[in-house]
Amino acid sequence: MQSRLQIEGRKSTRSRVRMKSKVKHLNQEVESRIYNISRTGVGLEIYGKLHAARGSHVVIQTEDLGMIEGTVQWAYGGYLGVQIRQNSNTLAQMSAYFRNFHQEVRPVLTR
Q1: For the PilZ domain, which residue ranges apply (predicted)?
Q2: pLDDT tens for residues 18-68?
């Protein structure tokens, strides 16, 4: 049996962020926070009920990124992993974000 640490699941590295957002799925819209981001996906903390399962189409709205479409890859206990839809608009938005706005969030408390 292979250790979980040796399995390669992500193709791009994720960066920690704290970004307010809204997630829309069908006729539902909830407040959320992006807690990690890469060029191909985002991790979201959901502040409400959202009935989105793996494979569901969602739209994420933020001030820094604008509107981004994606597909839910996993949902667990108030968190979502979303793969960003790879179209020219989204790729341009993500490139501009990483080039102009992104700053890695580091923990405040250290030991």
Answers
A1: 10-90
A2: 899 999 999 999 999 999 988 889 999 999 999 999 999 999 999 988 899
Pair type for strands 79-84 and 66-76? antiparallel
CB atoms within 10 A of CB 31: 12
| Alpha carbon distance 111, 104 (integer Å) | 19
CATH topology (fold) of 14-100: Thrombin, subunit H (2.40.10)
CB 61 within 8 A of CB 43: no
Which residue type occupies 88?
S
What's the predicted TM-score (pTM) here? 0.76
CB under 8 Å to 63, separation ≥6 — which residues?
A: 20
Sequence-distant (≥ 6) Cβ neighbours of residue 29 within 8 angstroms: 22, 23
CA atoms of 60 and 29, how far apart (whole Å): 10
The structural domains of the chain, with segments of one domain joined by +, span 14-100
